[in-house]
Amino acid sequence: MTHYASGDISSAPLVIKLPNIGRWYIAIEILNKTQMRNTTAPMLDTICFSFDWQVTGCLNGKTGTDCLWEAYVLQRVPKRNPSVPFESYYVPTDERALLEYSHFSLEKFLTNSSFEQFAWTYFFLDVPQGSAGALIHVQLKSDKELNYELYSKYGGLPSNDSWDYYASRTSSSNSSVFYSLQNSTDSDMDLSIFYAKEGTWCFGVKHPNYTSNSQTYMSISLQGCHRNCNQKGVCHASVDESGLTFYSFCTCDRDHGGFDCSDELVSPNGHIRQSVFLIASNAAAILPAFWALRQK
User: Which subcellular locations apply to this protein (predicted)?
Assistant: First the structure.
C-alpha cells in the first residue's frame, strides 16, 4: 500500500509538515481488534471512534513549519509579441517590484530573521493550463559572488529534504533530462525546467541570515524554446492532438541541430572543405566530358 505518511493516531496525532497543494485522501485502518464470540451465530462488529482534523496555515505572507519565512505570490505578465502564445514572466505583486520589468531585486524580498544561521524565502507561481510544453527559466545575476541556493518543488514547499530540482553556485540536480543548468558563474545562475507541469510551483531561496550589501536580480519566465534556439534557428508553436496544450520546437539552420540548436553539425572549416571538394569533383567531371566531345 502506497502512502505519504502514517501513524498510530490512538496514541499521538499524525502531523504532516509542508503538505503538497491539492486533494488528500485519509484512510483509517483498525488494528489489533479482539472479538469475543460466545455463540456460533454471526455477530456484527460495532466500532465507535472520533476523528478530528485541522489544516493550519500562516498569516501575513509567512510560511514554513514555524511561520518564520517570507512567502510571495508571483503575478504572471504576458510578454509583448511572444514567439509562442504562453510566453510570460513573473514578478511579485508588491510595490517593491514593477510589472514593466521582467526582473526584480532579490534582496528587497529576503527574509530577515535572527533565529537560525540560514533563512528561506519562497516564491509561488502558477503555470497556466495548456502550457505544459513550456519551460520555466530562472536566472540570478549579482554584482558579487552568489551565496544563495535555489530549490524548486511542484505543488508544495521545497526544503533541504524535499525538492524536485536544486541548484547552487557549486552543484545542481542536473541528473534529470528535464532540468538544465547552463552558463553559470560565481555571480550568475541560469537554469531551466523543461516541460513544466501545469499548476503551482514553488521556488525557495536559501540564503545566509544576515544583511548583504550585494545587488542581485532575479527573473522567472515561462518560455517556449530553450534559449530561443540559441539564435541558430526559429522557434515555432503548435498544439497537441487534443488541441488543449501548446508546445514549441526549434527549426535549426543547416549547420546546427538538437532540440535547442546547440549542437554544431558542420563547422565553418567544414563548410570550406565541403566547398573545395565540390569544386574539385566538378572539375574532375568536366575533363572527361570535354575529352569525350573531342573524340566525337
Answer: Cell membrane
